[in-house]
Amino acid sequence: MPALSADLPDLRAALLAWFDRQGRDLPWRQGPEGQRDPYRAWVAEVLLQQTQVARGLGYYQRFLTAFPTVQALADAPLADVLKAWEGCGYYARARNLHRAAQVIAQQGFPEAYGGWLDLPGVGPYTAAALSSLSLNETRAVNDGNVRRVLARLHAEPQPTPRWVQAQADALLDPARPGAWNEAVMDLGATVCTPRRPQCGDCPLAAWCAARAGGQPAAYPAPKARAAVQEVRAVAVLIGTPQRAVLEQREGALLGGLWGLPAQPYDPARPGAQAQALRDLCARLHATPGDPLGEVTHAMTHRRVIWQVYAATGGPPPADVRGAALSRLDHKALSLAQARADSLFT
Ligand code: ADE
After folding, report:
1. What Enzyme Commission number(s) does the record list for this chain (predicted)?
2. Residue 345 confidence class, pLDDT cut points 50, 70, 90
3. How much is the pLDDT for 321?
4. Are the CB atoms for 37 and 31 separated by under 8 Å?
């Protein structure tokens, strides 16, 4: 196997030639290399922080149609921004985009990595991506894909964040930093995949120590998984799936969204679910009705399970169509709609 450091120009040329031929054609990859439109690039990078490319495509188009310019985003009410982000999850991203748009509308787009990093919702990965893609700055991105590619290239079973950043900085092609970053992203997403790497198609195969050892998928060694936290709550539908009592959520995850009134409970305590339903209805001045069923939503570290009940009384219902709702709320409304449909068919 050729020594990686001596061969750096060939290795870079091989990956970039592969990217020029096979790189993914994605809507945010328009414009001259190193001079991407910063608005479109920024929206895409924030979206892709926690959303996979295949799902992100639809959300990206919808968001850009709603807010074609940074000024349009800055001028919009937060409720409209959350509505355009609806279904995408991790709503702090939408709130931060909105706040940052107001800064950019005043000061203009950042002109260097540090300026990007100062904006709400922009961390080192996003700042490196944006400064390389739209400012041609030599900044290497470092995420899970990059970690896997570099761990395999060097047959490093336990790559620390500092090690990955150092290797990524050393490999980055200073002549084409944005293309280099996206080439590594694409290699990790399409060829150097977690379980079944396609080494036969890999432009870096000649330099890959993990491939030479015969066990590329063994790198990096699996991390101990954080336990998934289970959260249980009761939720009530007062009204119909089209006109219902909604409350505005607070907190980092769903803050600003609207949803069915809900009350968490501890399933380990006997009678806690019934008590939560009574407490929730008492707070709303409502009367509990029939159970409608259960809905669940799984995220990376959390699984939320709701027991949904009909209820009567309480505050006046409002039109649900104009409000931004979480996916769990949509599931609860669909459940109620399915119940209503089955009663009349
Ligand atoms: N993931 C994060 N940024 C990306 C980009 N620019 N292209 C494809 N996948 C990405």
Report:
1. 3.2.2.31
2. low
3. 92
4. yes
Asked, for residue 311, whether it belongs to a domain, the answer is yes
Query: CA–CA separation, 268 vs 281, rounded Å?
Result: 22
Residue 20: enclosing H or E segment and its boundaries? helix 8-22
> Is residue 22 situated within a structural domain?
no
Counted domains in the chain: 1
**Do residues 168 and 140 touch, judged by C-beta distance below 8 A?**
yes
- Cα of 185 vs centre of ligand 1, distance in Å, is 6
Q: In which region does residue 244 sit, left (phi positive, over 0), alpha (psi from -120 to 50) or beta (all else)?
A: beta
Could you tell me whether strands 262-265 and 229-238 are parallel, antiparallel, or unpaired per DSSP bridges? antiparallel
- Look over the chain and give the mean of its residue pLDDT values, rounded to a whole number: 94
Tell me if 288 is assigned to some domain: yes
Q: What is the pTM of this model?
A: 0.85
Query: Which amino acid residue places its CA nearest to atom 7 of ligand 1?
Result: 182
**Distances in Å between the alpha carbon of 35 and those of 27, 41, 100, 110, 132?**
15, 10, 20, 13, 9
Kindly state if the Cβ of 205 falls inside 6 Å of ligand 1: no
Q: Cα 175 from chain centroid?
A: 30
pLDDT tens digits, residue range 312-335? 999 999 999 989 999 999 999 999
Evaluated on CA atoms 333, 334, 337, 343, the torsion sign reads: negative
